[in-house]
Amino acid sequence: MAFIRGFARFWYDFIVGDDWKIAVAVVATLLVAAALVVGSVLPTLMLTPLAGVLLMLAFAIALVIDTRR
Amino acid sequence: MDAAVWGLGVAVLAASIVEMVEALTIVMAMGMTRGWRSTLIGVAAALAALAGFTAAAGYALATWLPEAALQLTIGTLLLIFGLQWLRKAILRSSGRKAMHDEDQIFAEEVSAARAAGADKRMGLDWFSFVVSFKGVFLEGVEVVFIVITFGLSARNMPVAIAAAVLGAVAVLGVGIAARGPLSRVPENTLKYGVGLMLAAFGTYWAIEGLGVLTADHESLGWPGGDLAIVALLVAWYLLSQIMVRALRRPVATPTVAVPRVSEEV
Question: Which of B206, B228, B243 sits opposite A63 (nearest CB)?
Answer without folding.
Answer: B243
